[in-house]
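EI: anyone free to look at a 235-residue chain?
SC: sure, send it
EI:
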Amino acid sequence: MSVIELKNINKYFGTGTAKVHVLHDINFSAAKGDLIVVVGPSGSGKSTFLTIAGGLQTPSSGEVIVEGKPVSELNKKQRDKLRLNQVGFVLQSYSLVPYLRVKEQFEFVRKIKPNGNLGHEELENLLNELGIESLVNKYPGQLSGGQTQRVAIARALYANPEIVLADEPTAALDSARVIEVGKMFKELAERHNKAVVIVTHDTRLMDFADQTYEILDGRMSVRKPTHITNNQFES
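SC: here you go
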């Protein structure tokens, strides 16, 4: 069963002669346990698609449905609650609070969302799985790009969302790091039973996808995924 659906989504920016049709009749769905990769070049509409899926923007027409509920029927308070409780974002800029240590990033989430987060033991297990348990007393400025990325993923998962949306998570990473990140998101979908959607220009992530879509000039189509074997990408 799909946990998120986009039905006949169109998005326009501007008015009159400056009006631009950014997304054209987008149809998309993802279920728990799925890793979906949406590829396309810069300016193709990927980020607009992701922000509409996550409720940060509203479509010009069409409907976003999360766990069977049309988002258009929710008031502002309900939409804010949906984003807080059901959607986790991993943004290209990571969006960690620069003056908070790693462990304080999770305390910050808890202040905003007191209930429904992972328990203490579950968080410890998550930090261990991501290999960042030794970084809890460091500030974001003391972390490498890969470490920062894993902390951002952990923070998104701490809120225990059903849907994880990632924007260009492998930007500027070498092939070895891309493989590591691909494995991480694949495990996230399967082991934690999340619907994971990645938008990227990096076609290397297609090797980890259960389903791949392509966006070109605001139009989405299904692209045949590349399946990985059990021993592929072994370190």
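EI: Strands lie at 2-13, 20-31, 35-39, 61-66, 69-70, 87-90, 163-167, 195-200, 211-216, 219-223.
SC: 👍
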